Amino acid sequence: MANARTFTYDVALTFEEGRASRVTAGARPAIGVAPPEDFPYGDATAWSPEHLFLASLSSCTLLAFLAHAENAEIDVLSYTADVTGTISRRKSDGRYAFVAIELAPRVVVGAGQGDDAEQITPKAERDCFISAGTTADISVRWDISER
Q: How far is CA 90 from CA 6, 41, 56, 129, in A?
């Protein structure tokens, strides 16, 4: 891989109280993080590591799709997505982990560009760095329409 690039990102975490923390990354707004409500000290109003992971995977897929759409000169008029992740014990090692993720992007592209948009969806799935970093089974159900 003669043209391989390396990307490095830094995040700082500060414990607050109970099980809550705050994460920062440079000048970006801080994010409060706590366990989901299923766990002790859980907070249904705070972002949890689990929710942040799913948000990262969903937004990474969006960014990969947009990059490929731009290269293919596809007009993306709107893009929304829902994502659901299931955590249970993995069969391979008995550890709790995301084992299944269902991502459902809904994309509206310019008239006559639906087939072209469908053709770049495998590239968007492949090029999401976040999904490449998990062993979970990821199912993506694309809904592409034209306007």
A: 30, 25, 21, 22
